[in-house]
Amino acid sequence: MKIIPKFLLGSALALGAAGILATAPLAAGQDAAPATPPPFAHRARMMGFLGSAPLITIALNHKSDLALSDEQVANLEKIKSHYQSQVAPLAQQLQANEKEIAGLMQQTPANLIQVKAKIQEGEKYRSELRYQRLEALENGRSVLSAEQQEQLKSLLRARHGNFHGPQGQSS
What is the pTM of this model? Predict the structure, then answer.
């Protein structure tokens, strides 16, 4: 009697694994990519904090709260524009690289040497994107006074609290 349940369990697991393997290439394929990708593939993680708008955009959206001068606004807009012009081609290259990896992984057998080279190439794009973000953040920070930086931190804490509720409470 114990053989039949083990057989059924094994068959179910095998079918589930086969289903996952059959659909994995589809999930990684070109059709899965959006028609117009965001400027950066890992946008939420690469902002000032998880799941928010970029800090410079937040500062510009709260220019009256931060009492930004016209010169500060112009400088922040210039930094934002420069950042976007630097990031857009890198993001396109990264997206093309990811599509190439997906294509290589659909081959049977996959050429892991080529896959590894493409992964390493993608990491170069990711590190440059990260550096560009950090450079823009630092340039934006240099435009703000110490008081404005503190006000911006307060705005971010308030905004963060709106999404996640009070901290320290158990569910």
Answer: 0.62
